[in-house]
Amino acid sequence: MFRNVLVLACVVLAGCATPIVGEPELYTATVDYSLSVKETLEFYHYDCVDRGISDWNVLEWTPVPEGQQEVSFGLVHFNASYFSNLNNLGPSTSEVLVELDKMGYRPATFAELCAFGVKCPDKQKRFLIVALGSAFLGAYGKCNVTFLYWEYSVSYLNLCWIGGGIDGWGWWLDDWRFLVVPK
Which of 23-32, 79-88, 160-169, 172-181 bottoms out in mean pLDDT, i.e. has the lowest? Predict the structure, then answer.
């Protein structure tokens, strides 16, 4: 009996040995970095856009290139059970950023997320896809990041507050995918 439990524990722990599930899926798309937020929304049309996404409240955390560029993307799925927190909810934003840096990636920006969503619309039908490389200042000074999803044949470009959680950064559940760009 003890031996069976020990073998089962080793199998369970072996599945938790890496922070990501599988290798990131890779894609490419052309991104026009010269567009304003408003122009980006008009160029990469989405059915429903959060009204908090605007030119006046965008914060770019990642240096933004100029002009049009062909960009490689990866979709990263984190192994929620790898990260230890009180409720085993998955990684915090700070843990995600540390792991992405170790892997040689940076978080995608707002413009990159919009371009990716148009180039690969089927992905947002399967997952919530978030870009942590840009933020939008929301009510009461809260930082929000953009994410894509699909529901009832409608494509959404929405905002998600990155605050909350035990450490003040929030937790990312298993259904999120992180859009990343190689450094």
Answer: 160-169
Q: One-letter amino acid identity for 20?
A: I
Question: How many Å apart are CA 167 and CA 45, to the nearest integer?
Answer: 35
CB atoms within 10 A of CB 60: 12
Residue 9 lies in a domain: no
Is residue 89 one of the residues assigned to a domain?
yes
Torsional sign, CA 141, 163, 125, 62: positive
Looking at residue 8, its pLDDT comes to 34
Three-state DSSP at 97 gives helix
The predicted-structure confidence for 69-95, as pLDDT tens digits, reads as follows 999 999 998 877 676 655 566 777 888
Domain of 85 in residue numbering reads as 18-182
How many CA within 13 A on the CB side of residue 84? 2
The answer to whether position 53 is within a domain reads yes
Q: Are strands 143-151 and 154-161 parallel, antiparallel or unpaired?
A: antiparallel
Tally of structural domains, the chain: 1
Whether residue 11 is contained in a domain is answered as no
Report the distance separating Cα 141 and Cα 176, nearest Å. Answer: 24
Integer Cα distance of 141 and 100 in angstroms: 26
Give the residue-averaged pLDDT of 151-159: 87
Amino acid at site 27? Y
Q: What single letter denotes the amino acid at residue 13?
A: L
